[in-house]
Amino acid sequence: MFDIGFSEIMLVFVIGLIVLGPERLLGVVRTAAKWIGTVRSLSASVQQQISEELRVEELKKDLNAGLAGAGKMQAGVTAELKEAGSAISEAGKSPQSSSPATAQHNESPLKNNN
Q1: Domain limits of the chain?
Q2: C-alpha span between 9 and 16 (Å, rounded)
């Protein structure tokens, strides 16, 4: 995160020891450690919330895409069912191609010579 090495930390510690003294420096270090811990936990919490929101948005997009595909599939199935129903109703209305009376009149005279 920060590009601070061990030597810089020791320099800050020595300057703090000279300016604040050993008793107050420990209190400042404890307070700084608490603040750093709080900031880290808040940062982790915010990162977790952002990743959750991104995951929820991705799931919503996937769900919407799935629903759109299902709608298209339902429309296709409905069209096929209507087509099949009209074909069945037309087949039921059309006359029979060969009835017994028609078959007798259409026979050739050569077959009846017996």
Answers
A1: 6-88
A2: 10
State the DSSP string of the chain: -----HHHHHHHHHHHHHHH-HHHHHHHHHHHHHHHHHHHHHHHHHHHHHHHHHHHHHHHHHHHHHHHHHHHHHHHHHHHHHHHHHHHHHHHHSPPS--HHHHHHTS-TTTT--
Residue 73, CA distances (Å) to 31, 43, 64, 67 in order: 63, 45, 14, 10
- 50-99: pLDDT as tens digits: 999 999 999 999 888 888 878 788 888 888 888 888 888 888 776 555 44
Tell me if the pTM is above 0.85: no
Residue with tokens 């307070």: 31
Q: Quote the tokens at residue 55.
A: 């995951």
